[in-house]
Amino acid sequence: MTATLTPTGDRAAARSGHVLTGMGTLVRFMLRRDRVRLPAWILGITLFTLASVAALPGLYPAASDRQARATLMQNPGTRAVSGPGYGLEDYHFGAMISNEYLSWIVIFVALMSIFVVVRHTRLEEETGRAELVRSSRVGRHATTTAALVVAFGANLVLGALLAVSLGSLGLESVGWAGSLLFGAGQAAVGVVFAAVAAVTVQLNGHARGASGLAGAVLAFSYTLRAAGDMAELGGNALSWLSPIGWAQQTRAYVDDRWWPLLLPLALTLVLAASAYWLSTRRDVGASLVQTRPGPAHAGDSLATPLGLAWRLHRASVVWWGVAMFLFALGYGTLASEIERFVSEMSVIQDAVAELGGTIIDAWLAIIVLVFAVFGAVFAVLAAGRARSEENSGRAEPVLATAVSRARWLGSHLVIALAGSAVIMAVTGLGLGISVAGALGDTALIGRILGATMAHVPAVWLVTGIAVALYGLASRAAPLVWIVVVYAGVVGWLGQLLQFPQWAMNLSPLGHTPLLPAEAMRWPPLVVMSALAIILIVAGLVAFRRRDVETTA
Amino acid sequence: MTAIIEAKGLTKTYGATTALDGLDLSVVQGEVYGFLGPNGAGKTTTLRILLGLLRRDAGEVTVMGGDPWADAVELHGRLAYVPGDVELWPNLTGGEAIDLLGRLRGRLDPVRRDELVERFDLDPTKKGRTYSKGNRQKVAIVAALASDAELLLLDEPTAGLDPLMEVVFQDVIGRMTQEGRTVLLSSHILAQVEKLADRISIIRQGTVVQTGTLAEMRHLTRTTIEALTVEPVSGLETLAGIHDPEVGDHLVRFSVNGEHLDAAVKHVAGFGLRGLTSHPPTLEELMLRHYGNEVQGKAGAVR
Fold it and tell me: Is A63 part of any domain?
């Protein structure tokens, strides 16, 4: 592509201008298609950030509360799930935001960017719509560039919105300079992952695969900074290998360093250049990495609806199990610090006092409840698989064979019910092992496992609600997420902010005895199991009575 | 002859839209029945009701002596279905999908399966998400034809196939009917129905507008006659059933209704025939007669 090799240099120069022909139209087109989705992402992330930050003064009213939190940051486990731990000597709200909230918020920013790019490039090619566009007067690099422009623009808007909204909160120590840097850091990481996605869509021929690959890079970045921050207070060289680490190392609100943002800028340029170069190495619709062929005949297990359901859910069950186990294992290491932390925090003390039992027991009870919410999320996602199978038209050929409706839906349900139970067990085991290790008491493993499993009937009750709604109408199925989100909010903040009892009772997860802080009570578990069975049967019966809805 | 499918007055509405409006259908054992109509006429809705995937709002229907809604599972063991839009599981290979669907139906013939995979030139080791539309359709066709189902319900089965594969498909369907199986074939590809179907129903806006063998339908419609004569033809307008006559010095062209064909040809022969060509009505023309109003209406609107 060098000009010296081209005899007609002028024409080559003119042609290189043409590779972007139509880009402006494509940008407008993409914005038009994303007119709901992008604002929803941007507003959602901003509101989530604002709500988390606005809750800080309530959680840590006194400087001593914040210093207690700073002590907790001395623990490598805390740093693994939050940030490097700087500004600990005067741990104000600003330091908390950039130490602990940045790494969580940035995951969503990166995901938004990845999805934007993949949706407008690889997904378009995969569905064949790109051919239609490329056959008109559109330059070779116009689509990639337009997608990047849209992603960059979205990140800029998001960064500015974060800066303005945080700055105008008027919170002590959360000033304008720091907020601007915080917003810029988020946008910079978002831009990096947009460029990462621009590369992965060249490598993988499928939108899901390209998103997965970019997501793996995101997970790896998070792991790098987690490892670096764990190893050393303030982070070490490993933290500096991660784009997420770069944003954290701006030390917004503490030291306000802008120069680390040069790193994401440089990486973005390199990645974007690679994406353009790779895209010239392949055909439209093709990929650089070929998919491997699979078996020509089905194995013996693929002979029943349950065999099919297991095949479809297998990867998700395994990954959920592994992720939850590791998460629980990491969280459990906090156990040795928690007593000291709580003894210095008035708000949490009140919550613990209400629950009863020792501080550790109360803490475990709350953590286990949060894990139950995750279990419910898995169960609802697994049950929702039936809906996507139906709507995409993949259920139709199966239901046209000698498989009854009840057996087909039931097979997805078995995975949702058994899978959530297994994931809860694995999570309880992970928490039990690390807490037992931290406190040197092996008897805790069994107690914590039991406390986790006590939530299984409640998780099944949520599954029952999901199935009943789905049985009524495929469209009604997503309503179950209202229940899950409500249970999550009540479970996470209910004890802390002391919600009224009726509000807690409204959550299906609010009736399980909070072991090990509370005593075991069997009746709620029996009632919830019975309700779950009733709802599931109702869902199966209703599904047998309605039309199969194919929207594809 | 045993009726395999018997439907009377089938009605299905979705909110304000009426998909089926009193549809009648009767398919007997061993025949290939063509179910012809444009997109959105209600073909797929009918098939889905016959499969018990949709519930009829009104009307009577039996499939192989059973109620497709109530006896769905039992009936599905004896029939096979190829949907119009075949969607496969992205991470299952085509071969796995064929085996799975065959096993779920309960009657997969492994020898015939491999033979069909070969004949349709299908690579069964590719993942579902990598197949083109045509290849996804082949997967569904092989899965359906490899079973020893008594009844095949095929919804535009060859819409994505190339002409070569279409010939293979026609050949395989021909063999299956020789074995006494019944086929209900929905299509808007007229040539295909013409080649395979013993009887045809033309469906429009949820009702059957015409039913019969191709010959019967042709009888009902016009044949186009073009004749080269020694003497100029005169007096055509006095004959019954003549349409769009174009009379030249020695060349005459007109269409004539089936029942008046004999009289018209005899009349023309009186002027000394030097050449004669006749075109039987194609199904396009049959269709055009039923949708003619719409087609003309639309063309008029453009003009």
Answer: yes
CB contacts under 8 A, B 190-209 vs A, are none
A353 and A259 fall within a common domain: no
User: What residues make up the domain containing B241?
Assistant: 222-280
Residue B289 resides in a domain: no
Residues A251-266: pLDDT tens digits? 999 999 999 999 999 9
Is A164 at the interface with chain B, CB within 8 A? Answer: no
Burial degree of A116 (CB within 10 A; 0-12, 13-18, 19+)? buried
Contacts of A497 (CB under 8 A, 6+ apart): A58
> Which candidate in B104, B108, B131 is best for mutational testing of the A interface (most A CBs within 10 A)?
B104
- A261 plus A347 within the same structural domain: no
Q: Which residue, among B96, B131, B151, would best test binding to A if mutated, counting the most A CBs under 10 Å from its CB?
A: B96
This prediction's pTM: 0.79
Tokens for A176?
A: 């304008």
For A356, phi then psi, to 5°, come to 90, 175
Chain B nearest CA to A401, separation (Å): 5
Same domain, B254 and B202: no
* Residue A343 within any structural domain of the chain: yes
Using an 8 Å CB-CB cutoff, list chain A residues near B97: 298
Quote the domain boundaries for residue A428: 305-545
Model pLDDT for residues A227-253, shown as the tens digit of each residue? 899 889 999 999 999 999 999 999 999
Residues A338 and A272 in one domain: no
A121 CA: distance to closest CA in chain B (Å) = 17
Chain-centroid distance, C-alpha A361: 28
